[in-house]
Amino acid sequence: MKLMKILRLLGVFLSFYLATPETKAQCNQHVFSSVGAEKWTNFQYQDCDSAMHYFGLPTGGYTIIFCAEIGTAFALNGDGFVYPLQTEHPNYESCLEPAVIPCPYDFDGDGIVGVSDLQLFLANYGISCE
Q1: pTM value?
Q2: What count of other Cβ atoms lies within 10 Å of the Cβ of residue 39?
Q3: pLDDT score of 82
Q4: What whole-number distance in Å separates Cα of residue 33 and Cα of residue 45?
Q5: Residues 6 or more apart from 56 whose CB is under 8 A from it?
Q6: pLDDT at 93 (0 to 100)
Q7: DSSP E strands: which ranges in the chain?
Q8: What is the DSSP letter of 113?
Q9: Which of 68, 95, 100 is closest to 84 using CA atoms?
């Protein structure tokens, strides 16, 4: 049993770290629920930063939404369930990554932070924004 958990964790670790950026798993909100369950259910999932998490939900209809990489969220035991949401629920933390600006101080977009960027900054310094 313990060996199987170690092998499964090793497989998740290797599949994430050996994957190219194009093949890495997508991160989504996942519903973890014990609605209709008659037993305590233990879950595991890998978050968007590749950290593994384990937690349990009692019977009685508990539901929680966490961001997890698709294919890494499981009900380990019990009769609860887990599934990825197709669209994000607005009341829970978003899994969408903000757009990365390759060079945030390159104001003129020429790929170099230089004097022209400083001139653009100074020309707009002190202007109030709405």
Answers
A1: 0.56
A2: 12
A3: 93
A4: 13
A5: 40, 41, 42, 43, 78
A6: 85
A7: 27-33, 41-46, 52-57, 63-69, 74-77, 81-84
A8: -
A9: 68
Distance from C-alpha of 36 to C-alpha of 117, rounded to nearest angstrom: 60
Report how far apart, in Å, the C-alpha atoms of 89 and of each of 64, 71, 85, 94 are: 11, 19, 8, 8
What the block records as the tokens of 76 is: 């380990």
Nearest to 36 by CA among 15, 13, 61: 61
Residue 79 φ/ψ, nearest 5 degrees: -120, 25
pLDDT in tens, 26-63: 889 999 999 989 999 999 999 988 899 999 999 888 99
pLDDT at 24 over 90: no
Region of poorest pLDDT, from 5-9, 52-56, 59-63, 106-110: 5-9
d(CA 48, CA 70): 10
At residue 13, the pLDDT reads: 43
